[in-house]
User: Fold Procollagen-lysine,2-oxoglutarate 5-dioxygenase 2-like from Notothenia coriiceps.
Amino acid sequence: GLWNIPFMAHVYLVKGSTLRNELKERNYFVLGKLDPDMALCRNSREMTSHREKDSPSPESFHMLRPPKGLFMYITNRHDFGRLISTANYNTSHYNNDLWQIFENPTDWKEKYIHSNYSRIFTENVMEEPCPDVFWFPVFSQKACDEIVEETEHYGSWSGGKNE
Assistant:
């Protein structure tokens, strides 16, 4: 659906021309003791420069005739992407995204898990090139390349011994 809402927080999708023209004149994030997100919503709704003639003022606001400012809508009709967590993003690795398996699991799976991985559970996609050796897709080519790069950047491979 699509709904007109009075307040929203955290994420906004705003037309560039609106930011450059309508919202450039004053600080819309400040209004009394309101939090910045609530101030933006209220200031945008109550903009006087966009009111139609004979539109009610905020003081005479009535549900059947709301003021003609910038209205905010929330929709579930479109997927605009998702937010990623950067709170624990470590930049000390060669391929930093490779280490985000627990912080951003959906993005990590899309990037590093082979597209046919789930088929090993529903179909017989395992190959057996010789007895007791099984091939099946787990990692994407990108994951394999980045694991090799990460190991080479670290400076050593496992010696293959249990020490």
